[in-house]
Amino acid sequence: MKKGLECEELEEDLKAFLSILSDIGTPVVVTAHRNADPDAVGSAYVIRNVLRRRGIDARLLFPEGVSQVSKRVIKEVIGVEPSEIEDEAPKESAAVVILDTASYEQLGGLADFARQVIKIVIDHHSASKLAEEADIAFYDPNARATSEIVYLLVRDCMEESLETAELEALLAGIVYDTRHFILSTPRVLRVAARILEEGASLERVLRSLQSPPPDISQRIARIKAAKRMHAIRAGELIVVVTHVGAYESSVARALLDLGADIALVVSEHGAETRIVARSRRDVEEKYGIHLGRDIMEQLAKRLGGGGGGHAQAAAMTTRASLEKALSEVIKIVEELLRSRGLEPQVLV
């Protein structure tokens, strides 16, 4: 598993990557996590196109579709209807390229397939089970977006040029995952600058990422979430836990706007329960709390399932019931706060 992105170090892996996919004898599936966000969509779209230009039959598939914001990026930046971004699923495939995905559970209906074939993983999550188990991994937890890794891999290591729509798809992934460059590093800013110098339009990318006002269903979900909220105070820190039927990410953001420092939103989807977490930027700095490492990984150990994420944004999926998940989330939050020398008190 590679942790850097030095082309000389990646040379052998790159040769193996292209050689395996060229000789595999079946179409190659290119995919990313379900409800794919702009970073997943942009990076997977570009890798699919690059492989095709090298004569490889690469098929782009997104398990359970893409997010609402990704649909706007697909339409306004890539220039096709969201329903047209995916390819026909192959009857058989012996290899998969997985982008921006940390665990099998995040692959939804493609998880069993991914377990049985050759896996190439390109990812930036701080904890990536898939990268550990991959046949080849281009993995850099220091990258702010998988699109950042893909740009450097394609432009610097493979020395391939990219079309304007491809550059803008990667830029959309970077802008989205860095929260409009708030979570930047010098390297990701240099990558963004290079993308702009090569002809991408930042204005078009920002316009595609602009959220429309929430519709009535989303507003109702936010109100229900606030009504069901379990709030914990520990010193100056406020953590809220709630549950909804949909719009988990939107609800989590709304709860941060309401005054929470950390928001955890649980939702039930058929046989699965999804947990989404968001935190304010200064939570990791002040309290050393990393949502992916300190909450999602611990939840996965207790509830089963998998997930991951970043310091400020993380998610997981489990087959535990909604009630069990809510109970464990609250327990883990309270244990975590005590481990930081804080005494949790129930607010609501």
Please give a quick description of this structure.
The chain is an alpha/beta fold and about 350 residues long. It has helices spanning about 5-25, 40-55, 70-80, 110-115, 130-135, 145-155, 165-175, 185-195, 200-210, 215-225, 250-260, 280-285, 290-305, 320-340, and strands at about 30, 60, 95-100, 120-125, 135-140, 230-235, 235-245, 260-270, 270-280, 305-310, 315-320, 345. A hairpin with a 2-residue loop joins strand 8 and strand 9.
What report would you give on this structure?
- With 348 residues, this protein is of the alpha/beta class.
- It is built from 14 helices and 12 strands.
- The protein has helices at 7-23, 38-53, 68-78, 111-116, 129-133, 146-157, 164-177, 186-197, 202-209, 216-227, 248-258, 282-287, 291-303, 322-339; strands at 28-32, 58-61, 95-99, 118-123, 136-139, 230-234, 237-244, 262-269, 272-279, 306-309, 313-318, 345-346.
- A 7-stranded mixed sheet has the order 10-11-9-8-7-6-12, with helices on both faces.
- Strand 4, helix 5 (129-133) and strand 5 (136-139) form a beta-alpha-beta unit.
Portion of residues within helices: 40-55%
End-to-end Cα distance, whole Å, is 45 Å
The beta-strand count equals 12
What global shape is seen? globular
